[in-house]
Specification:
Alpha-Beta Plaits, 2 domains
Length: about 300
């Protein structure tokens, strides 16, 4: 299996263009993926991995395989979505079971939690690739990921994972544009990271908490809020929604709080600030954000604790 950049160092090649039109990006990705030969794509069904899988299907045909990991940390419905996308783009698709909860570093839930999650994933995918004669393992990491706290990229480097989007210098905007041009069903799908990202760093991860968060998010989503996070504060679920939905959510706070309590939380509140991915990562880098042990209390009451995504 071809080796990636040095472990833990995510960089965009100096020769990568700052922006692509969709046709140039597609040709670039096809060339990069074809050069690596038979490939397994780490496939969640989100827009990034869906684009890599779609291009791999174009470049490699039957020599491309999309593989989706199934575990308690994956939100309900995500597997069905991944299956639908794989069928639409015409790539062979399989699932594997992963057990990140067996890894003490993951359960401990420090800032490097994603390293242990991705180590579990890429260990399993690398073993599958070796058994089946695939020479490359591809991920959907894009150029925007290079500037954020991404310990999972270190795990990828240790397992020789390639990142075609990152190598090509393609950020999220370019990825979504090309995915739309190719008719990929997940082109506008909101990001849905591991459920453990809703748990403050330092609070242990366990199956019951992951299931509670999943139930609460499904309940709020059913009320018409597609982009949200339920942040876990023990007996309290703090609901974050997209900026465009915040006014509507505050107007319906009693209904939302009841849905979250029905899912299993004793208390619930709608955050007065909108959802923004990477709040904890800003704190880790010393920038503004809400997180860490020294954070104060906000208008909604609970301590501002650090989260992943």
């Amino acid at each position: 299996m071809s080796r990636a950049a040095p472990a833990g160092r995510a960089t965009t090649p100096a020769t990568a263009p700052a922006a692509h039109d969709s046709a140039r990006l597609l040709a670039d990705l096809e060339r990069r993926i074809a050069a690596g030969g038979r490939a397994v794509v780490a496939f969640s069904g989100g827009v990034d991995s869906s684009l890599v899988a779609a291009v791999a299907a174009r470049a490699l045909g039957p020599d491309a395989l999309a593989v989706t990991a199934v575990s308690p940390a994956v939100a309900a419905g995500e597997l069905d979505g991944a299956r639908g996308v794989a069928a639409a783009i015409g790539i062979a698709h399989e699932t594997i079971a992963t057990d990140e909860l067996a890894r003490e570093g993951y359960r401990r839930n420090g800032p490097d939690r994603c390293y242990f999650c991705k180590t579990e994933l890429y260990t399993s995918l690398s073993a599958l690739a070796r058994r089946r004669g695939y020479g490359a393992l591809l991920s959907g990491a894009n150029a925007d990921d290079a500037g954020d706290w991404r310990p999972g990229l270190r795990a990828a480097g240790e397992h020789g994972v390639r990142h075609p989007l990152l190598e090509a210098g393609a950020g999220k905007a370019e990825v979504r544009a090309l995915a739309r041009d190719l008719g990929i069903p997940s082109a506008d799908k909101p990001a849905t990271p591991c459920l453990a990202s809703r748990i403050p760093y330092g609070t242990a991860v366990d199956p019951a908490t992951l299931a509670l968060i999943d139930r609460a998010e499904r309940a709020v989503r059913a009320l018409g809020f597609p982009v949200l996070r339920v942040r876990h504060h023990g007996i309290l679920g703090r609901v974050e929604v997209a900026a465009d939905d915040l006014g509507r959510a505050l107007a319906r706070e009693p209904e939302i709080a009841e849905a979250v309590r029905a899912a299993g939380y004793a208390h619930a509140v709608v955050d007065r600030e909108p959802f923004r991915s990477g709040r904890l990562n800003a704190v880790l880098h010393g920038g503004p954000g809400r997180g860490g042990g020294a954070a104060g209390r906000d208008r909604t009451g609970p301590r501002r604790a650090g989260f992943g995504a």
